[in-house]
Amino acid sequence: MTLLAEDLLLLLLDDASGKPVVDRTRLPRVLAGAVLLELALGDVVTPAEPGEDVKKGRLVVRDGARPQDPLLARAVDLIGRSKPLKPEAAIEKLTKNLRDELAKRIVDAGWVREEKGKVLGIFPTTRWPEVDGSHERAVRNELGAALLDGVTPTPRTAALVSLLSAVDAAPKLFPDADRRAVKKRAKDIAEGDWAGKAVRASVDAVNAAIIVAATVPAIVAGSG
């Protein structure tokens, strides 16, 4: 099975141009949020609860099977090496080289190709146009059933919707649909009762962390 973050990156790349449909501030952070959410769905890393030795809301690496996927395993090691992190701090740490690593994986899978170029002949740029859209179409079909047809999503699909909702990208996937309705449905799913307590806490923490992480650099830049 592919990672949530791989599916998310495919969805957030324009099929024709190969360019991301969200800005460079939010993209790496929502991808890192996807990694964190995948670990929560597997009960590998979740926020601490009241009564634990770790401060409530800080991330805890749970006892259990280590993820087999090397990207997830490294994420667990990174989180486990630090003192208990807030989700937003973990997201900042996880962003390093994450987009490029995920891009390499979806290139290796044959779904997109990498095209390097330069803007104005100076600034390097990379695009990932679609090569084989079969996997992404399957993911979009699941999302469409949930967002357009009202079908109850699986926890994995709901997690993907929650990440898309965090960066307001769900309507961009279905441009022919009512943007407001898609946005509302995505928000309802993101806030819905589809996950256990620990995962619910992780979804809320990841979404809040993405918003904070994306907002703070903009504030700093604007005040400079």
UniProtKB/TrEMBL annotation:
Molecular function (Gene Ontology), one example: phosphatidylinositol-4-phosphate binding
Q: Which InterPro entries match?
A: GPP34-like, GPP34-like_sf
Protein name, entry field: Golgi phosphoprotein 3 GPP34
Q: Where in the cell is it found?
A: Golgi apparatus membrane
State any GO CC term.
cytoplasm
Q: Which domain of life is it from?
A: Bacteria
Give the membrane topology: Peripheral membrane protein
Q: Which terms are listed as keywords in the entry?
A: Golgi apparatus, Lipid-binding, Membrane
- Key word Transport present in the record? no
Stored Pfam families: GPP34
